C-alpha cells in the first residue's frame, strides 16, 4: 500500500526560547506532524522536555502531535502525555518491561500507538505486536541527540519492516539524520513518514523552513534531490491537515 508522505519536523532542533513561535513557523511552513522528542537522561544520554512542555505548546497548532518517548520506564507517564495532547505516542521496544502491555495502554487512552527500534535492534522485536500498533519508528541514528549522521545500515531494516507491515494500516516512520539528500532512499525503502530536525530548522525564516520541508518532501515523493539554491522556486504543498492514514 502506498501512503501519502508526511513530514514531521523534530522540535528538538528548534530554538527552545521561542518554542511556540517555532512551532507556529513550521506549521505555516508546511509541516504535516509535529515530532516531539522526550528524553529522560536514563534511557538516552540526554534530557529534553516532558509532558508539561507538550501541554504548554499544544495550543500553538492543530497539527498531529507525534510524541516519541525515549524514556524508561514508560508506563507511569503514558497518561500524562495523553492528557497533555499527544496524538501518537511512540515507545521503545528496548525500554520494557512489557511492550505489549504498554501498547495496549496507549490505545486504551484513545491514542495511536507507535513502537520504535534503535539501530541495533532487529525488526523481529515487533513481530508479535503488529496488531497493536499504528506506527513503527525506525531510528536511523542512536537516539539521544539531533544532528547526527544517517546510518545507511538501517535502509535494509526499513525494507524488511515495510514487508512485515504488508497491507496493515501502520505508518512507517524514519528518524535521525534525514535530509533532502537521503529522503529519496528512505522513501524508496518504504518509509512514508519522515522526521527531520536539523534539516528543517536550518535557517531562520518561515520561508527557509518551508523550502527545507518542501525539498525533503519532493525528494521523498519523486526520488529527485532539490539543490539548496533551487528550492525557493518550488511551490509549497501542504498535505491535508496531516491526518494519520
Ligand atoms: O529522536 C531523535 C534523536 O534522538 C531525532 O528526532 C532527532 O532529533 C532528529 O534530528 P536530526 O537528526 O534530524 O537533526
UniProtKB/TrEMBL annotation:
InterPro entries: Aldolase_TIM, Ribul_P_3_epim, Ribul_P_3_epim-like, RibuloseP-bd_barrel. Its cofactor is Co(2+); Zn(2+); Mn(2+); a divalent metal cation. HAMAP family: RPE. Catalyzes the reversible epimerization of D-ribulose 5-phosphate to D-xylulose 5-phosphate. It holds the Pfam family Ribul_P_3_epim. Substrate binds at residues 10, 68, 144-147, 175-177, 197-198. This is Ribulose-phosphate 3-epimerase. The keyword Metal-binding applies. Binds 1 divalent metal cation per subunit. Pathway: Carbohydrate degradation. Its EC number is 5.1.3.1. The keyword Isomerase applies. A divalent metal cation binds at residues 35, 37, 68, 175. It catalyses: D-ribulose 5-phosphate = D-xylulose 5-phosphate. The lineage of its organism: Bacteria, Pseudomonadati, Pseudomonadota, Alphaproteobacteria, Hyphomicrobiales. GO terms for biological process: pentose catabolic process; pentose-phosphate shunt. Belongs to the ribulose-phosphate 3-epimerase family.
Amino acid at each position: 500500500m502506498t501512503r501519502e508522505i508526511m513530514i514531521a519536523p523534530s522540535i528538538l532542533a528548534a530554538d527552545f526560547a521561542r518554542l511556540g513561535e517555532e512551532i507556529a513557523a513550521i506549521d505555516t511552513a508546511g509541516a504535516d506532524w509535529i515530532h516531539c522528542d522526550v528524553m529522560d537522561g536514563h534511557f538516552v544520554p540526554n534530557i529534553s522536555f516532558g509532558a508539561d512542555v507538550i501541554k504548554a505548546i499544544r495550543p500553538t497548532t492543530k497539527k498531529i502531535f507525534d510524541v516519541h518517548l525515549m524514556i524508561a520506564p514508560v508506563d507511569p507517564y503514558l497518561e500524562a502525555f495523553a492528557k497533555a495532547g499527544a496524538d501518537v505516542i511512540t515507545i521503545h521496544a528496548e525500554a520494557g518491561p512489557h511492550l505489549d502491555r504498554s501498547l495496549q495502554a496507549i490505545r486504551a487512552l484513545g491514542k495511536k500507538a507507535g513502537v520504535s527500534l534503535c539501530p541495533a535492534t532487529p525488526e523481529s522485536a515487533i513481530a508479535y505486536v503488529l496488531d497493536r500498533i499504528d506506527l513503527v519508528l525506525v531510528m536511523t541514528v542512536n537516539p539521544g541527540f539531533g544532528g547526527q549522521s544517517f546510518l545507511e545500515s538501517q535502509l535494509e531494516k526499513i525494507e524488511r519492516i515495510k514487508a512485515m507491515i504488508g497491507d496493515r494500516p501502520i505508518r512507517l516512520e524514519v528518524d535521525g539524520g534525514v535530509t533532502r539528500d537521503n529522503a529519496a532512499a528512505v522513501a524508496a525503502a518504504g518509509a512514508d513518514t519522515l522526521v527531520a530536525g536539523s534539516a528543517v530548522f536550518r535557517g531562520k525564516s518561515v520561508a527557509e523552513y518551508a523550502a527545507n520541508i518542501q525539498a525533503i518532501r519532493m525528494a521523498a515523493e519523486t526520488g529527485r534531490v532539490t539543490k539548496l539554491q533551487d528550492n525557493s522556486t518550488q511551490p509549497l504543498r501542504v498535505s491535508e491537515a496531516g491526518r494519520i492514514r
